[in-house]
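Instructor's aside before we start: the two examples that follow are unrelated to each other. I chose them only because their records fit on one page, so don't look for a connection. First example below.
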Amino acid sequence: MAEPLRPLVVALLRWTDARARIDPLSGEVETDPRGAGPSEADRCALEHALRIAEAAAGRCVAVTLAPEPAEELLRDALACGADAVLRVDVPSWDSRVPDSGATTARALAHAIRTELGEPSLVLTGDHSADRGTGSTPAFLAAELGCAQALGLVELSYADGELLALRRLDRGRRERLAVPLPAVCSVEPAGLRLRRAALPSTLAARTATIPVVTGSVAAEPVTAHAARPFRPRAKELPPPPEADPRLRLLRLTGAHEHREPPRVVVTDDPAEAADELLEYLRGKGYL
């Protein structure tokens, strides 16, 4: 009797130098592998992947698209408990290869499917430390044809269901039941990567890191015309009055009542809080 397939949980780690230097004469960016590594969001994603893989009795695999010095990042993931690792290499990495979220996601999706199989869950940080746009998880979800959840601050797996807590604006939170398979990007909140044991660290130093070749060559872009940005005009309903004078007054807002600004000075914290709450109620926020 064949054993049931174990769920595949993939943690995507981005190798980046948080202390890159710029040559003042040539303008070239100089990086040092000794100061490079994953961001706090990626560390948090790896910890979530380890916990969910344990709860689901699955496999946790750490994957990165990076040059050879990034193998130290993967060895650290092995030491923390990852079942396997994979590095996606790019030909001529040191040349000026454009970094596109769409092409990066395409290379990662192809490597994961070819070498590991269809993932049940892919976890990554919300954005990289080198001023990343955070667009790769969305492109990756499109490539894999699965759901996506972003801005997550909590993740839990129980009874075959993935539950998440997402951060919203104005301090709000949203609870989600994420359908699987899915791509989830997490924020570095409330969770830290576990400390690796000494035997695991020593074993990871001599482990063989699997490497596959990928490509992040971007499609050529054609610029037809360059002109200043002009925002689209906002559509508003026309004034209901038929009298031209009343229509003009309505458009200019000349007779509208406006509350003048005021400054509240108080040493009482309770009074200051009451003033703030009253203002928010008057504006319709509460």
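Example two begins here.
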Amino acid sequence: MANEKLYLYPLWIRIWHWLNAVLFIVLLLTGISMQYSNPENPLLISFELSVQLHNICGIALSINYLLFIFGNLFTSNGKQYKMKTKGLFKRLYDQSVFYLFGMFKKQAPPFPISLENKFNPLQRFIYSTAMYIGFPIIIASGIAMLFPEIIIPQLFGVSGLLVTALLHVVIGFILSLFLFIHIYVCTIGSSIISNFKSMLTGWH
């Protein structure tokens, strides 16, 4: 039912989610500062402070990611990230059409939120890709650059450190786009702040 109140976000999910958001934003800002400035000409934050904050928040994000993994392994939340391949493209198409046209015409969503399905098919596909592919890559590449001695010296004739750094930056850029899109989609609710409030209280 549209007016039914659902408890969708247990405390551990809310803690993980807000920690993840804060840490990722700090990593984004410090990453930009390191990428587009030099020690003599800081962009957002001093270069030295950016490096320190980036390393600390990167380690914290990695530990927080373990909370996500173990939480999904040992609670029912893990099923929210499982996708059925049969009819997947049709479901993705239907949800995309709703986002592009239907919601502006006040049409009912094709996949209403329920306790069994907190995510619509497009959300499930994007969130699963981000959390189970994007995050492991950016964490692994970040750890590798923190301990560069473990990186393969050469990869197809190219510096292994350069390849690792480029991979880290590219995945970081893609996840940053995901963050901005995620924030925008969160404003699509009964009110602009209703979905943000849900992640504070747990109730949708």
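The chain is about 60% helix and 0% strand.
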